[in-house]
Each structure stands twice: as C-alpha cells, then as structure tokens.
Design goal:
Layout lengths: L20 H12 L3 H18 L3 H4 L3 H11 L39 H11 L4 H22 L6 H11 L8 H7 L4 H40 L1
Helix pairs in contact: 1-2, 5-6, 6-7
C-alpha cells in the first residue's frame, strides 16, 4: 500500500525547532559531503540563508558566533568545517546555570519597602537638625504615599511618626502636634493642586475670552462688508 503523507511523529526529531525542519535537513546533508572545503562553503552559505529566512536569526545577527554554535548543535556536534569561531563544547548544553542568590535583607516594615530604610539611614547622617527634620518630613510623605498605594485605608500620622523614630532608632523625631497642625505629610500634594489648578483654570478662561473677542471682531467686519 502506498503512503500518501508522512507524519511528524515518524520523522526525525528537530534539534532546534526555531530554525525549522528544512534547515535541519540541510545540516544533515552538509555532514555527508566528503570534502571539507565544500562542507565549509555550504555551511557558510547556509548561515547566510538562515539570516534571511529564520526570524530568530535577526536577533543573532549581532552575535554571529551564536549562529555557528547553533549549526554545531543541529549537527549534534559532528561537523568538521573551518569554523571562523571556536568550536563549542558539547557540555555547554548540559551545564546548569549558576544559582542566583536572593538578597536576604531583613525589612522591618515591608509595606514601606527597603528604600525607605535606606533613606532613613542617610537622614540620620545629617548633622544639621533642620536638615534632619526636613528629611524626616519628606520620608513621612513617601511612607504615606507608599502605604496608600497598596492599602485602601489611610495611614494615621501618629503611626508614621512612630515608625520613623523606630527605623532611625530615635535619631529622627517629629512633633505629632506640629505634623497635624501644619499637615506636613499632605502639604506637598495640596501645594501641587493649588499651583496647577487655578493656573490651568485661568489659562482656559483666557483662551475662551480670546476666542470670543476674535469671533466678535470677525462678525463685526463681516457686517460692515455687507452694508
């Protein structure tokens, strides 16, 4: 009985599927060429062909050695050609990557993050008491912002003042009454609204007034022409 088609399950496995079966067949053919110079010529031509046909080759063009390494991998490292690069070692396919160490930093308050602790540490190094206070206020604003980014409820100012003192080991202290009276942890955002809101409103009104004046002027000129 004559077979009509050929199933992929009965074909030879593709080593690098991103290049396709036809490239794998060409690599297998190059291995059968007896002349080394001819094999090298065909391998070089195949590399240039892969650059035009295979989408993955567009990423590898900046590193041409990778394409030659893939050629050896598809040939099961049984390819004797004049390689312009060093011949890859078979063990690289089975070499396990080096285990990446995860930073084991102990974060006191995870809802603030590690960077807040770094900022508190830098603020404690300031010698001027006024600069330390300004730094503590700025850190308090960040702490309230970071907390509200992940939580729906609002963080009370007393908690922030206490946490700043805890993280700085008592070196940064703020008066809770002053924070609440002057609204220090919210002042930045209110200043932004005050500075941007009215100014934008005035600009919009000026633009509307200028358009109205130009419209009235053009309408008046048009009436004079009709008269």
């Amino acid at each position: 009985m004559k077979t009509i088609g050929e199933y992929n399950t009965s074909r030879e496995a593709i080593i690098l599927k991103e290049y396709g079966r036809n490239v794998q067949k060409l690599v297998n053919y190059i291995r059968t060429i007896p002349d080394k110079e001819k094999r090298t010529q065909m391998a070089t031509t195949l590399i240039e062909l892969i650059k035009q046909l295979a989408p993955v080759a567009k990423e590898a063009q900046e590193n041409p050695q990778r394409m030659w390494d893939d050629l050896y991998i598809m040939a099961d490292f049984n390819l004797d050609v004049n390689n312009p690069f060093s011949t890859p070692d078979r063990t690289i396919l089975f070499k396990k990557p080096r285990k990446m160490e995860y930073p084991q930093n102990d974060v006191r308050f995870r809802h603030y993050g590690k960077n807040i602790e770094q900022l508190v540490l830098e603020a404690t190094k300031k010698e001027d008491p006024k600069e330390r206070e300004e730094a503590a206020i700025y850190i308090g604003k960040l702490m309230k912002t970071f907390y509200s980014a992940w939580n729906k409820e609002t963080l009370d100012d007393s908690v922030i003042v206490k946490d700043i003192s805890t993280l700085s080991k008592g070196k940064l202290s703020l008066s809770l009454d002053k924070v609440r009276e002057e609204n220090l942890f919210e002042k930045l955002y209110r200043e932004q609204r005050k500075s941007t809101g009215p100014q934008q409103g005035n600009e919009k009104r000026d633009n509307r007034n200028s358009r109205n004046r130009s419209f009235k002027k053009n309408r008046h000129q048009h009436r004079r022409r009709e008269q």
